[in-house]
User: Fold this.
Amino acid sequence: MPLGFWRRHRIFKWFAVSLLIALVLLGIAIDIAAHRAEPFLRVLIVQRLEEHFHARVELDSFHISVAHGLLAEGKGLRIWPPASVAGVAVPGSNEARNPLVTLAEFHFRAPIHFVRGKPIHIWAIALDGLRIDVPPRPHLTHAADVEAPAPSPSGRGAALLAGLRFQIDSVQCNNARLTLETSVPGKEPLQFDIKTVRITHVNAAGAMEYAAVLTNPRPAGLITAKGTMGPWVVEDPGETPVAGAYRFDHADLSVFKGIAGILNSTGKYQGTLRAMVVDGTTDTPDFALTRFGTAVPLHTSFHARVDGTNGDTWLEPVTATLGNSQFTARGKIVQAPAPAGLKAGGPHGHNLNLTVDVEHGQIGDFMRLTSRSGQPLLNGTLHVKTDFELSPGSNPVDERMRLAGSFRLEDAQFSNPKLQERIGELSLRGQGMPDAAKTAAAADVRSTMEGDFTIKDGDVHLPHLVYIVPGAEIDLHGAYGIDGGSLSFSGTARMDATISHLVGGWKGWLLKPVDPLFRKDGAGTKVKVHVYGTRKDPQFGVDF
Assistant:
């Protein structure tokens, strides 16, 4: 080979080795510079967060690496509520305030090169272990009361870092929790466990888009939601605007003792974290009272106001369909205060108070829920106005609910053939047709009921029940046992026919002399009656 070739070969080899050494040294230099920049960047992050939240910010550690682009990692981030310092108690409170934001760790990548004056583009920030604890409004103070943040380091490097701006495409967060505190004594804060959330269009001064998967504790199930949130209200995070849509699937209602069924719900919401307006629907095709086990499909559509600090909800209104019966309800679901003698702050459940209006329902749909066989005691058209209360507790729902109202039942027939035949016999005899009382015509008699009622401790109490069939009007009072189906009613029956026509035949002819004794208050016959026994074996009698 020519001597010149070997010389050129040695020059290229030397050049390549020199270039490699230079690149290694440059990487070491950049890495050293990056590590030297860590304190400045850490201070810059803390300072920017303090300026944005008007609050004290703590960051335990922050590291950067330039091995494969700029990699930044941080751990132990805490942002305290406005005008608070770690460990300092709220004025008027005996407990220290929690941080507004706690973050276990975060990391992101960015290109090493950037143009001065333009933001550094960060594709995604990953967060893990995020906790947001929103205090109640009375515990928040104005930003003017905030202690000024500590001064940042000075110097040319600090000035350069201070001029940095970032553009963030998205934030991915796992294992987060949002807690909305309440200032009401004895009420628990509202807590949401967020499995994942992805935030895009990250902008501190505007609305951000999000898609989240939340774990609902009771009833257990996953909620998927997407929408917008922001801009973040620094002075009162509970006033941060929020809007979106949700879907709640396969929620098992059996966690609430006394009821069962799998609920699915969809809806939309808007407002703030503290006050949201929700419009949605629910479907529970197998709704049942566990004590009886008969399922009846339940569908609802609702308009509600929700106080996010404690979960209190005002229903305005709920339109529901149970089986073939439609009704509306208005009222509230509010967290129950701590019972006397118990320490405030424990889980005490919710009180449910509703005004229910059944304009045109079917009594069979409601009574089927309280039937183990699925066969209702009565069938007919139902009109009801009632107040409904459900108190918290461990007893079944039918033992904790309280109802008080009035009703009217039209075109009614008993499902029990024996009882229906006796009612039909009473009607025909009351019309003076005793010979037809034992025929098939007795089973086809329709009746009307109206009166006041209360439901308490598993029993239906009827202090004044008017029962009307053709030829007779019966005033009753008594109770019906929901669980065992016991019947205990007594009252007075007024028949159009006289006692002799009511009995008929030769016995009726013998009774003609006593007709005046039973003819009272404009009735042909007025006697005392009773209904005892059970729904399966009723005992209907006349007390002469």
User: Anything to note?
Assistant: The two ends are 140 Å apart (CA to CA). The CA atoms of residues 377 and 415 lie 5 Å apart.
